[in-house]
Amino acid sequence: MKLTATFRIALRALKRNKMRSILTMLGIIIGVAAVIAMVGVGNGAKAQVEAQIATLGKNMILVFAGSMTSGGAKGGYGAAGTMKVEDAVSILREVPGVTLVSPEIRSGAQLAAGNQNWFTTILGESPDYFEMREWEFTDGSSFTEQDTRSANKVGVIGKTTAQQIFGDDDPVGQIVRVKNVPFKITGVLKSKGFSLGGADQDDVFIVPYTTAMKRLTGATILRGIDVQAASDDIMSRVQDQISELLRQRHNIRAGHDDDFMVRGQQDIAEMATAQSKTMTVLLGAIASVSLIVGGIGIMNIMLVSVTERTREIGIRMAVGAHGRDILSQFLIEAVTLSSLGGIIGILLGVSSTYILKLLSKICDMLHIHNDALAAIAYGPTLISPTIVVISFVFSAAVGVFFGFYPAKKAAALDPIDALRYE
After folding, report:
1. Segment-wise mean pLDDT, segments of 10 residues, the chain, 422 residues
2. What DSSP string runs through 18-54?
3. Residue 93 lies in a domain
């Protein structure tokens, strides 16, 4: 029998029991939609983390002061007071492939202007810091190398801090007091949003690191050093050379722990996205269970169909149909059910983001707040074409796998026994 004729017979059989066919497909529909939606949510979370990593700048290497032990008491990272400005200068001069360096001082202080005040993060950096982090200005400009050499009382203000203190007024040229020290604002930074740790990167006031050390904190040590490599492919080599140089400068002998940490942008990205990758795999695996359940449903219905149509099978065999024709018919029915379910599931999964956003808006209108729904609805969702194709192929494979046994059972029926079946 021709395949097209077998296919038409299979479709007629499915049409005779439309409701049963729809309910059978439901498991596959839910499974495919769940896989696509959940993997999309996981990919969106991963992309969001990568976007936050990108706000660090390009080819960035971060050198942090490490931990220390004194009198049996262990201090955390940043406790080691060994990172000096001279280390930053040596890294720029002695490590090939390093293009820019910024020594970093970090503290917190109250900013005040007129009758407004705001507690914010104070960063001491070099003028190269803004180029390294690819941080643009909405108004004004950076402080200069001369400001750094002279420890001038100038600074650059973040978007959030500027809004809190000056509102809609232009901050450039205005004076703010930091620990009763007057600073002139030279520029306003473009918004960068939140960091991986959830901190507002725009809630900041950045001054020359020399100014921070001499006029604000009195510190002689650095919290860290920001380094930019010339290209991505030499990042690993530059990190190793920075570690080797600092071990020499800090007189750290072989076998002893470093009093610093060196982390590349790629290292930070891998650590940050590891959780997102795990979540994506877990969500996809959980959703895939629905596909298995849907496949079991197909097998169950096809077994029932074989029992119900035993006499029909006997008649077809009596008029010349072969076992392979019966096998093809029932296999096509199973694959058709799973494939149609897969197509509908794909459409539902791709549109899931819009459905969730609609549900979230309805909940807002009804004053019903759900944090989980809001996080999914308003978070980024990236539907991968690859997972769409895989989901469809898998749904069709489920039909073949779970439909084979009922089809084989139907093909193995004895024509005489089938004709006698009541």
Report:
1. 65 76 82 80 72 76 71 47 88 92 92 92 94 91 94 95 92 93 95 77 94 90 90 89 91 83 78 69 74 80 75 72 74 82 85 68 61 52 76 80 76 65 54
2. HHHHHHHHHHHHHHHHHHHHHHHHHHHHHHHHHHHHH
3. no
Q: Check whether residue 309 and residue 390 sit in a common domain.
A: yes
The pair phi, psi for residue 315, each rounded to 5°, is: -65, -45
The span from the CA of 68 to the CA of 72, in Å, is: 10
Q: Global pTM?
A: 0.65
The domain in which residue 32 lies consists of 3-51+274-420
| Total domains in the fold of the chain | 2
Give φ, ψ of 196 to 5 degrees: -60, -35
Alpha carbon distance 390, 180 (integer Å):
63
- Tell me if 254 is assigned to some domain: no
Judgement on whether residues 340 and 413 belong to the same structural domain of the protein: yes
How many Cβ atoms are within 10 Å of 112's Cβ, its own excluded? 16
Instruction: Tell how strand 60-65 and strand 181-189 pair up.
Output: unpaired
Three-state SS at 120: strand
